[in-house]
Design a protein that fits this description.
Length: about 180
């Protein structure tokens, strides 16, 4: 996609998951900042199932994730695995193909990542607006947080469960509320 630099009016080709410098004036362009895309968190199949089936232990936290107001997404392979009507609004990312780097991923434990797990990782690599994965699978901490999904030094890719996501969201809200009331 080509964009015009606001400083020097030069046309620049901006790739989807990159940041570049303008060759004319040196201004930095980040795809997500330039197109003002929202931060999206990917939701794994187990979060969707716990929320739909009203699980005794994890259901309330999973429903809280969907009711948090944060933009959430998932992949078409996750929806195919759920195969139920989902009463929540989700952005669905379509997986075209796995790259060789992602398809060769292996966990350090006996349980190896499934196609759904690999699809979430591939979509997170392909789309820079995705900031993390919400899941109860333990193998994501070994794979996705191991550096395969990297956003550079400005942000770190977050992987956690529904309870951690809600705690993080409440903590951010409380910090934002106290700083705005002091001004």
């Amino acid at each position: 996609m080509k964009v015009t630099c606001p400083c020097c009016k030069r046309r620049i080709r901006l790739h989807k998951s990159r940041k570049i410098l303008c060759p004319g004036c040196g201004a930095e362009f980040k795809y997500t900042e330039y197109f003002h895309e929202q931060s999206v968190y990917l939701v794994d199949t187990n979060i969707i199932l716990y929320a739909i089936n009203n699980d005794r232990h994890k259901g309330s936290a999973c429903r809280g994730v969907f009711n948090s107001g944060m933009p959430l997404g998932t992949t078409n392979t996750c929806l195919a695995e759920v195969s139920q009507d989902i009463p929540y609004h989700l952005k669905v990312y379509t997986l075209k193909a796995l790259t060789p780097a992602v398809s060769d991923l292996r966990a350090t434990t006996l349980k190896q990542p499934s196609l759904v797990d690999l699809s979430l990782i591939q979509v997170a690599i392909d789309h820079p607006e995705i900031k993390g994965i919400i899941t109860y699978d333990r193998d994501f901490h070994r794979i996705a947080a191991g550096g395969i999904v990297s956003r550079g030094q400005e942000t770190t890719f977050w992987v956690g469960d529904a309870q951690l996501f809600l705690e993080r969201r409440v903590k951010r809200f409380a910090l934002g509320k106290t700083t705005s009331s002091n001004t």
